Amino acid sequence: MSEPKKKGISRRSLFGAAGAAVATGVAGYTAHSVISGEESQAADSTGPVEFHGAHQAGIVTPAQDRLHFATFDVTTDKRDAVIALLKEWTAAAALMTAGRDIGQYGAVNGPAEAPPEDTGEAVGLPPARLTLTIGFGPSFFQDAKGNDRFGLKGKRPEALVDLPHFIGDNLDPARSGGDIAVQACSDDPQVAVHAIRNLARIGFGTTAVRYSQLGFGRTSSTSRAQTTPRNLFGFKDGTNNLKLEDTAKLEEQLWVQPEDGPEWMVGGSYLVSRRIRMTIETWDRTSLSEQETIVGRGKGTGAPLGKSDEFDPIDFTAKTADGELKVAKDAHIRLAHPQFNNGAELLRRGYNFVDGSDGLGRLDAGLFFLAYQRDPRKQFIPIQNQLARSDVMNEYIRHVGSGIFACPGGVPAGSYWGEKLFS
Ligand SMILES: C=CC1=C(C)c2cc3[nH]c(cc4nc(cc5[nH]c(cc1n2)c(C)c5CCC(=O)O)C(CCC(=O)O)=C4C)c(C)c3C=C
Ligand SMILES: [Fe+2]
Q1: Closest by Cα among 417, 404, 374 to 83
Q2: Is the separation of the CB atoms in 176 and 218 below 8 Å?
Q3: How far apart, in whole angstroms, are the C-alpha atoms of residue 10 and residue 61?
Q4: pLDDT (tens digit, 9 = 90+) per residue, 367-412?
Q5: Which of 108, 119, 137, 258 is the most buried (most CB within 10 A)?
Q6: Does the beta carbon of 291 lie inside 6 Å of ligand 1?
Q7: Residue 132 φ then ψ, to 5°
Q8: What is this model's ipTM?
Q9: For the Dyp-type peroxidase N-terminal domain, which residue ranges apply (predicted)?
């Protein structure tokens, strides 16, 4: 981004090498890599994360601390306009993730008579591990009447199903769905907000924001280099998550494989988002032992009940002296565990949220659940069906928003988001 005028962190001096490596190409959507290696991306919370690669950044990237998630409705019926938008978004995403202003002139160097190309609130801020991850929802491929919107109906992946109604769902349509989702994650909240805001600005006339969600405090680890964070129930969350180091498992559970098809999704993944309200006021009046029984883990250590270390394997058969199962039949970790879900796993990447209060003396708080997977028909849907039926945690949570998106494979340098889908 441009040199800040006031005293502070100078983007140019601190991140000059990264910035110099980025160049917009002939078509305006090329950028060159800055660094590589997922591990190095966890180490420095101010540095950049490589935008280009075999997979989109922001999936196995060690989960950043902040989220700004938005879905967009496409307001044009012109295929060419959508392609042009995706090219422009890609160019902007490559620049912003490298810590640069967008456009030719950025925030403050353009003509005084025109609105600045970059909105400017990230001037002086480092890249802060910003990642931008895109996904296409079912409504991008066909409208509610089944009409082909952009000549893509035949390219809708079979795995991109409309999610079924789950027991207890109380979904708000205004917080659900969307033609396109963009997940912005960063260690700096302003960097994440800036990214979505600039994409929304570029999209004026082609897309409209359907809804957006801010998240603070990651609720998962996606790398063994990270400590396990806590959710708003105060429990460690993300212990038994898929991690970037589990490369063989990621092929099996996370990334779409050539035999899965369609070709444009190979190397990609399916994202399910759920806005889950947590009635924390009721939870806070529940005893410690009841809370631990509901989750199936100790609140302090995060260890499975009956074990002492967070990463000890769970013994689902262990019983107390009274003959009770230590991890109850309806405990969350039993019902969600691959052993009881045909081996299915998820890469969870959710965030806490508190969006003010609800007018009834309660915080509008919860978990913005984000999970990536190879096939939602075999992973999220059966797991959530089982949780919706039997999880004792349901007394304290309510699913109020929902989305499903096909996130294509990575963007090679010189390409743009979704190029294979349109070719
Ligand atoms: C459909 C999938 C899941 C939803 C929805 C979900 C909601 C949810 N979870 C917690 C808190 C915890 N979840 C934990 C583990 C866990 N959860 C899921 C899936 C869903 N959770 C899975 C697959 C797992 C791992 C199970 C295993 O293999 O052991 C844990 C324990 C720590 C951990 O392993 O991550 C907690 C705590 C909340 C609060 C919540 C909705 C608000
Ligand atoms: Fe869970």
Answers
A1: 417
A2: no
A3: 26
A4: 999 999 999 999 999 999 999 999 999 999 999 999 999 999 999 9
A5: 137
A6: no
A7: -125, 125
A8: 0.99
A9: 56-216
